Amino acid sequence: MGYELRVTLFGTSLLQNGHQRSQITRAQNRGLLALLALNANIFVTYDWAIEALWGGRPPSSARTQIHTGVHAIRRALRKLAAEDLLTSNSCGYALRIDPGQVDATLFERKVQQARSASAVDNHDEATTLLEEGLALWSGPALGDAAGAFVAGARQRLDQQRASAIEDLIALEMRAGRHTDVVDRFSAVIDQFPLRERLRGQLMLAQFRAGNKVAAIENYQQFRTQLADKIGLDPSPQLRALQHAIIRDDISLDGSAQQFATPFDSAIPVV
User: Fold this and answer.
1) How distant, in Å, are the alpha carbons of 23, 106, 213, 260 from that of 116?
2) Residues in Cβ contact with 6 at an 8 Å cutoff, skipping those fewer than 6 apart
3) Phi/psi at 222 (nearest 5 deg)?
4) How many percent of the chain have pLDDT more than 70?
5) CA pair distance 18, 6, nearest whole angstrom
6) Which of 30, 33, 138, 180 is 20–30 Å from 199 (CA)?
7) 163 to 29, 114, 130, 242: CA distances (angstroms)
8) Rounded to whole angstroms, what are the CA distances from 173 to 51, 99, 203, 235, 268?
9) Is the pLDDT of residue 269 over 80?
10) Which residues, including other chains, have CB under 8 Å from residue 109's CB and lie 6 or more apart?
């Protein structure tokens, strides 16, 4: 293709071609754009779109609203690309682009490539790919889009982001950059307060960076939040890490190969 069209779904929903940008009006139309972009090159039927946008309670004007949204998206696309990228048939519509032109899909690709690189011990490449993928996030996934499917899609992408952050932390800790991990990722806990792997990684990084008190406080905070929000206790693995930190277990210093914990491991292959 002779253009550089990009669909941005992280933060503000945008269509971009180089320095040119085109925004879609109305949150529901942005939701329709997200649905088409996340399913690039697949015909999204009217029934599928109606269910995605309104769940089981569509208005009588649902098809008309979809037609109106498609026209808005098509106008925005035509400002940026010479081709008509939104094709239609009697069943529905398809956005004809490389899925990698959608930031959400590109992010998923880079995470998978990073895990493949890590599986063959190419940790520098894995780190670079994860950094590139996470840099695509300029705001919440589908942050300005509306539709019944949006909350579920946002949650799925947010959890993938959390996993990618954990994978990157694992690689940084493998390289011995524990203080950098603490400085850079401590605030991420506020976004994902119940992610146990993330919590354990930061506890271990704090301990290795010489702040045992912060690591213990981190655990206590997590235990309280977990009990208050879902009525559970931390896992045996996290409790074991906490006890090891309290007694200054030498195996936690990062040099002892026999200490194996999911909070200190390289990123997994999936």
Assistant:
1) 35, 15, 36, 21
2) 14, 15, 16, 17, 101, 102, 103
3) -65, -45
4) 92
5) 8
6) 138
7) 29, 12, 10, 22
8) 44, 32, 12, 22, 15
9) no
10) 99, 100
Task: Give per-residue pLDDT as tens, 88-143.
Answer: 998 899 999 999 999 999 999 999 999 999 999 999 999 999 999 999 999 999 99
List the one residue out of 200, 132, 210 whose CA is nearest residue 170.
Answer: 200
CA dihedral 135, 139, 143, 144 (to 10 degrees): -110
Residue 256 has pLDDT above 50, yes or no: no
Q: What is the mean pLDDT of the chain?
A: 91
**Could you give the CA distance from residue 220 to residue 214 in angstroms, rounded to a whole number?**
10
Give the residue carrying structure tokens 């493998």. Answer: 174
CA dihedral 95, 56, 229, 206 (to 10 degrees): 0
> Position 157: which residue type?
L
